[in-house]
Write a structure and sequence with these properties.
This protein is an alpha+beta fold. The protein has eleven helices and 17 strands. The strands form seven sheets. The chain has a four-stranded antiparallel β-sheet with strand order 4-3-12-11, with no helix packed on it. It has a three-stranded mixed β-sheet with strand order 13-15-14, with helices on one face. The longest helix has 58 residues. This is DUF4280 domain-containing protein.
């Protein structure tokens, strides 16, 4: 049993569950020493006067500190030093590399919006070290941490978040193992989290200084903003649509712009024949090209996606790829000059393509969603949404009156990105990685643990 200068530590077990606080004692199966769990700022919840931790307190060198020297050959520095020492295992300084939240938190007790951390919770270093909580820290003082005893060392148990090399070679990797491997290969994730954590104090200070000014400006702009929202989002589009309907040459792309009248009908459920209306509208005049592109309205994405008109060559490439994936040609609609509707599936069957199908060309750090390419976006819609809908595995469907029923938006979008990454042909590895990161981000942002929903997702076959 590990010791800290004569103080016996109660090892975590399923029989004795307790909440973990700042200063808890951690061990790693590949480390030579134990370390303490830290947090830069309190979550505002205390146990015995000590800040309580949650499962998101896993950031390397911010929450989880080094464990002395690492002896895992999965660590490149250890492997290199061992090779240079004629094959004799040569431990090197530990650099913890945890990439996922703690496993087995208490979901029904939230600390700062996330499940509370328990003494039975575990994590896994990217270099295959299993990280355990040896003592919850509630009754420990400021004692010095000693060396880790041999009783705590040994091969790590398999768990989500481990590096790709941690898999047992004699076992055939499952679909989920392959998915985890793809996520683990995104090497910029740990560095990005560490960088974000280091920038957090200055960002919080700036936010605190800017808050009064921002609130005052928001209060002054609110009446004007509400008026503009109602006028530009509802009144003007509906009026344009009504004017278009007075013309007997109805055109879906150039006329109704989807957003106004069609969305109103879907939302209020006024018609059971909206699909027939769209089919009839599609028989109107075809989309005009050439110099018209320079004058066309575009989908405003606030810089999150492309905001330049699509060229004829781009349109041809994207529509050809959609057909190759199995989308019927007659179900593909390219937005017209006045159409600012977003790229996506309409009525579960029609693929609408607008300028936001391409990634953002803005400089700086962008989210995975902003960097998904045009082909990957088409794959997300066709392989992800369209095929899942045909298989009856979509999380968003239409009712009898063609109104959208959203069972779970995060699961629906994450499933679409993961399916596209796994099954869509002719995508580069970077495109597949970006789709996987988008899927993971959507689940994390919704507070959903992957291991809790993996059996629900339609990502095992096409």
């Amino acid at each position: 049993m590990p010791n800290i200068e004569g103080i016996n530590i109660q090892q975590s077990s399923a029989e004795r569950k307790s909440y973990v606080v700042v200063g808890a004692i951690l061990s790693c199966s590949s480390g030579s020493k134990q370390s303490r769990l830290k947090v830069p700022f309190s979550h505002g919840v205390f146990v015995k006067g000590k800040p309580q931790m949650n499962i998101m307190d896993f950031v390397p060198n911010v929450n989880i500190m080094p464990f002395g020297k690492c002896s895992s050959l999965k660590n490149p520095t250890v492997a290199s030093a061992t090779a240079a020492n004629n094959g004799v295992l040569t431990p090197m300084p530990c650099t913890p590399l945890t990439t996922m939240p703690w496993i087995d938190g208490k979901a029904d007790n939230l600390v700062d919006g996330h499940p509370a951390l328990l003494n039975k919770s575990t994590n896994m270093c990217f270099y295959c070290g299993q990280i355990k909580i040896e003592d919850d820290g509630q009754d420990l003082g400021g004692v010095t941490i000693g060396n880790q005893s041999s009783a705590n060392s040994g091969p790590p148990a398999a768990g989500f978040g481990q590096g790709p090399a941690c898999e047992k070679p004699q076992e055939k990797p499952s679909m989920w193992d392959s998915f985890v491997k793809g996520i683990s290969m995104l090497g910029d994730v740990p560095a990005a989290m560490q960088k974000a954590a280091s920038e957090l104090p200055s960002a919080l200070e700036k936010a605190a200084n800017d808050l009064p000014k921002g609130l005052q400006k928001a209060a002054e702009d609110l009446p004007k903003g509400v008026g503009a929202f109602v006028r530009e989002g509802f009144i003007e589009p509906i009026q344009e649509d009504l004017d278009t309907l007075r013309d007997d040459k109805v055109d879906l792309a150039d006329g109704i712009a989807i957003g106004g009248l069609a969305l109103g009908v879907l939302t209020l459920g006024r018609s059971k024949n909206i699909k027939d209306f769209v089919d009839a509208a599609r028989k109107g005049k075809k989309r005009t090209g050439g110099g018209q592109n320079n004058l066309r309205k575009i989908k405003d994405t606030n810089g999150l996606r492309n905001e330049l008109p699509l060229t004829e060559s781009q349109i041809k490439e994207l529509t050809n790829y959609a057909e190759k994936l199995g989308m019927p040609k007659e179900n593909i609609n390219v937005a017209g000059p006045d159409d600012t509707s977003p790229t996506g599936l309409l009525f579960d069957t029609i693929l609408n393509i607008n300028n936001d199908v391409l990634p953002s060309n803005a400089a700086g750090k962008l989210s995975a969603n902003s960097r998904i390419t045009g082909k990957a976006t088409i794959a997300h819609e066709v392989v992800g949404h369209y095929e899942a809908g045909l298989a009856g595995r979509s999380f968003q469907v239409m009712d009898e009156e063609l109104r959208p029923i959203i069972r779970n938006f995060a699961l629906d979008e994450a499933q679409a990105s993961i399916r596209a990454a796994r099954f869509a042909p002719d995508l580069a590895q970077t495109e597949r990685n970006m789709l996987l990161r988008d899927g993971i981000s959507r689940l994390r942002n919704a507070g959903i643990r992957i291991r809790d929903v993996r059996e629900l997702l339609f990502i095992d076959r096409r």
